[in-house]
Structure formats: structure tokens, C-alpha cells
Amino acid sequence: MSGEIHIPTLAPETLFHIGNISITNTMINAWIAIIIFLILGILIKRKIALRPGKLQNWCEYFLDLILGYFDQVTGDRKKTIKFLPIVGSVFFFILLSNWIGLLPGTGSITYGHNMLLRPANTDLNLTLAMSLVAVLSSHIFAFFSIGFFTQIGKFIQIKNIIKSIPKGPIAIFTALIEFMVGIIEIASEVAKVLSLSLRLFGNIFAGEVLITVISALIAAVVPTPFMLLELLVGLIQASVFAMLTIVYLTVAGSAPHGEEHHEEVHEVLKEPVKVK
Amino acid sequence: MNIINTVYASNESVSETEVLATETYTTTGHGEETSGVVASLGINAQLFVFQLLNFAIVAAILWFLILKPLTKKLEDRKKIINDSLDKAQEVETNLTMSQQKFQEKIDEAKVEANKIIEKAYADSEKLSEEMKNKAKKEIELLVDQAKRNIQIEKEETIQGLKNETVNLIIAVVEKVLNEKITDKKDRELIEDSLKNIK
Predict the structure, then answer these.
(1) How many Cα atoms occupy the beta-carbon half-sphere of B40 within 13 Å?
(2) Other CB atoms closer than 10 Å to residue A161's CB: what's the count?
């Protein structure tokens, strides 16, 4: 049995420096994923045809499978294809980097005093970067689909306050509530980033710690069920991240409802109550 | 930036695991120090930018080398299949229409053929009747002609025979009578006699 249990730290370990740039073990893992995708991409790009080969067939099968799930959220294949550069990248990158983290060598090969390989998603910088890209891209898509001011109007509802002034105190009060709701919406956008990044980071990090501890206790056979579980967790986390991203993209791209409804409410409030 | 690197170790038994070292070291990429929760989670501006760059590279590779070509091919294939199905539907419709037209033409041809056959049958009946009549007439004519010829020949033969007989009788009588009667009287006598014989 090993004498030491190297429990991964929350922060990725710096392996070496290139100039001022710190190279961490999670970066190495991400680069491995990049190289795998690059090789796969070159193979697919070179051999792509209308009559698919084995590799293209498998890739198309998986792509079509996930497109079906994404379609259930967007309700339209065209929208799904529009969001695919972000959502597809997020899904496949998270999935591959999670599964690479389960390969032998991750956590066991050391470089200096640190692990050489560590799952890329146990780095909060990466999960934060991805979630930031997901949430920001949802707003960028919204700017193009519903318009810049309509999208901004979801969060900063000053127009309603100005409109409500001649309508009376109740309308002003309602407009103020709407303004506050807009502020809460801004906070919810920040929460989206935090929840996406922390969820993925927490799950994968916990899995890595679990496998590290179990492997250190009993190296053979016992970690296998946990590794199978982590295989599933990797898939689930990739799916959750991708599905939430596509939900954010779809919701952000839809026009805000309620302006007409609010107008109706104001009209109703202005009318005196008739008692029979 | 502070990164807390904790290494746990177990000597003989895992239960006796204890902290061997808690090393706190500082990586000063740009000489800035951060602390608190953000630092303990390992968030670092430089690392964040590099991971963002990593993700951008992954996204670019995935989209331009894998997802875009695959989705394009899927769409192309879908379009081809839809076009083929539409064409097949069109061909099927045309085939049904052609079959209907073909059947109509066949029916028309059958009716026409029946009419032609009936007409041909009637014509042939008529023609055969005409031919029969014509042949009958010709046969009758031939028979009549033959009969006449036979009659003429018969008469000629009889006449010849008569003449021969007359000559024979004359010769016989001449021999018998031996110049008692002149030739003229003899002939007249014989002819009378022959007429009486008839």
C-alpha cells in the first residue's frame, strides 16, 4: 500500500513555467483533449462523405442523438444548429476531459511533487471560463435575435417607470417592483455563471478525490465501481452543463412577455370598481 | 496568489493518516497577491485566460473540423433523402397515371380490335359468299360451255359418221349395183333412205 495519499488541492498544481506563464496539470489534460479532438477532426474532415465510413457513422450517430435532446429544448432544429458551436463544444469537451481523467495515470503519475495529469474540470478557472462563455453567448444571441434594447430592457426597466408617472401611484409602484425584478435578474445571471461552474467543478473534483482516496486505500478492484460511477457522472455533468446552456440560450433568445399584460393591468387598475 | 497544497500521508495504517505538510506557496505571475475564498478555489486571472483560450481552441476545432462538416453532411443527406422521396412520390404518381392511361389505351385498343375483328369477320363472310357465288356461276358457265362443246362435238361426230356411212353405203351399193344408177340419183336415193332411217 502506498505510504502517502495525494489528495488533490482545490487549485490546480503548477507543474512548470514557460516565461511568466504557469502550466498546470489541468492544462495538460485540456491539451490532451485538444489533441484528441484535433486528430479526430482531421480524420473526419479528410474522409467525410455522403456515404459515411465507420468513424463518420459513429460520430453522426452520437451527434444525431444529442441533437435530438437539444431539439426537445429549442423545439427547432435550425435553432439547435445555431447554438451547436457553443453547446456542442461544451458537451463534448466536458465529456472527453471528464473521461480522460479516469484513464490510468491521472492522479498517479507525478511530476516533481505534483500530479502530472488531473481532470481539466477540477480547475475552477476552466469551468468558470466555460460557464461565462455560455451565459455571455446567450446574451449575444439575444442581442441579435430580439434586439439590443429589448434584451437590456429585461434587466433595466426604466422605461416602465417613466411611462408609469402619469398613470398614478399604483402604476409607479408596479414599475418600481419591475425595476427591482430587473436588478434581481442581473443577480440571477451572475448566479447562473456561479452555479454552472461550481456544479461541474464540485462534482468532478469530488469524484477525483473519491477515486484518489479509494485507490490509495485499496488499489485493486475496489475503485472499479467508483470509476464506473465517475464515467456516468462525467456524462451526466456534461449533459447537465450542455442542457442548461441551451436552455439559457433559448430563453434569452425569446422576446420578453408581459409588457402587454402589464398595460392591461394598469388599465384595470385605473378603472373604478363597479359594485352591483 | 496563494495556493494551498496539502499532502496527506499514511505511515503503516491509513487510519493514522496525518497531515505531513501544509505548504503554502505563492505564485506571483504579475506580482499581484489575492487572498480569501477566490484564491483558495484556485481562481487566477492568468489561468482563467489560458483556460478560456483552451476552450476557444476546443470550440474552434470541434465546430470547424467535426460538428460543422458532420451537420452539413447530415443536412445534405437529409435533403437528398427528402428530394429522393419527393421524386419517388412523383414517379409513383406518374406511374399510376401512366398505368391508368395504359389501361385506358388497352381498353380502347381492345374495343377497336373487337370492332376490327367483327368487321373483318363480316367482310370475310361477305367476300366468301361473293366468291362462292362467283365460283358457282363460273362452274355453271363452264359446265354449260362443256355441254355445248360436247353437243357440238357429238353432232359433228354424228355428222361425220353419217357422211362416212353414206360414203360406205355408196361404195357398197356401187359395187352391188355396178353402175345402174347415176351418181346423182344414187346420192339422192341414199340421202332419202338415210333420212327415212332417222
Answers:
(1) 3
(2) 15
Residues of chain A with C-beta less than 8 angstroms from the C-beta of B66: 37, 40-41, 44-45, 59, 92
Mean pLDDT of chain A: 86
Instruction: Please report, for chain B, the start and end positions of each structural domain, with discontinuous segments joined by +.
Output: 1-43, 157-197
Does B63 contact A84 at a Cβ distance shorter than 8 Å? yes
pLDDT, residue B192, reads 86
ipTM of the complex: 0.85
Residue B5 main-chain phi, psi, to 5 deg: -110, 110
Cβ pair A124:B42 closer than 8 A: yes
Q: Is A102 on the interface with B (CB under 8 A)?
A: no
What sign has the CA pseudo-torsion A249, A255, A257, A262? positive
pLDDT digits (tens, 9 = 90+) for A139-179: 999 999 888 888 888 888 888 888 888 888 888 898 899 89
Burial of A127 (0-12, 13-18, 19+ CB in 10 A): buried
Residues 6+ apart with CB under 8 A from A177: none
**pLDDT tens digits, one per residue of B62-90:** 999 999 999 999 999 999 999 999 999 99
> Can you say whether residue A19 is alpha, beta or left, with left for phi > 0 and alpha for psi between -120 and 50 degrees?
left
**Residue in B4, B13, B49, B73 to test binding to A, most A beta-carbons within 10 Å:** B73
Query: Rounded CA gap, A101 and B4, in Å?
Result: 22
Tell me which residue of B50, B29, B63 sits closest to A82, measured CA to CA.
Answer: B63
pLDDT given for residue A224 in this prediction:
86
pLDDT value at residue A276: 39
CA dihedral B95, B97, B100, B102 (to 10 degrees): -60
CA distance A71 to A94: 20
Whether B59 sits inside 8 A of A48 (CB atoms) is no
Under 8 Å between Cβ of A179 and A270: no
Q: With 0-12 CB in 10 A as exposed, 13-18 as middle and 19+ as buried, what is B12?
A: exposed
Residue A262's contacts (CB-CB under 8 Å, 6 or more residues apart) are: A160, A174, A178
